[in-house]
Amino acid sequence: MAFGLSCSPFLLNTSLKHHILKYESEDPQFVQKLLQSFHVDDILTEGSDDDEAYVFYIKEKSRLTEGGFNVSVMIYD
């Protein structure tokens, strides 16, 4: 991935979407929530409680790691 080019955000976003859509038949609700959570190179999401947010994070990290993406987390209260 080329960083610093004007097209880099588009290429990253397209790559992420392409990878995530591979799981659409397996887990459509997760895929929709994740796709709606993208903001450039960030994923902004919430859960109704800590357990729901943690399960989503584990799925997200696992799926994106399979595609070679590194996921780190920041928690805001």
Report on the architecture of this protein.
This protein is mainly alpha-helical and 77 residues long. It has a domain at 27-77. 52% of the residues lie in helices and 5% in strands. Strands 1-2 form a two-stranded antiparallel ribbon. The N and C termini lie far apart (33 Å). The model has no long low-confidence stretch (mean pLDDT 86).
Outline type: globular
Counting DSSP E segments of at least 2 residues, the number of strands comes to: 2
By DSSP (H or I, 4+ residues per run), the number of helices equals 3
Main pleated sheet: 2 strands, antiparallel
Which whole number gives the mean pLDDT?
86
Helix/strand structural class: mainly alpha
Helices and strands, in order, run as HHEEH
What portion of residues belong to β-strands? Answer: 5-15%
Strand arrangement, major sheet: 1-2
CA-atom Rg in angstroms: 13 Å
Report, as a whole number of angstroms, the end-to-end distance: 33 Å
Unreliable stretches, pLDDT < 50, 5 or more residues? Answer: none
Fraction of residues in helices?
A: 40-55%
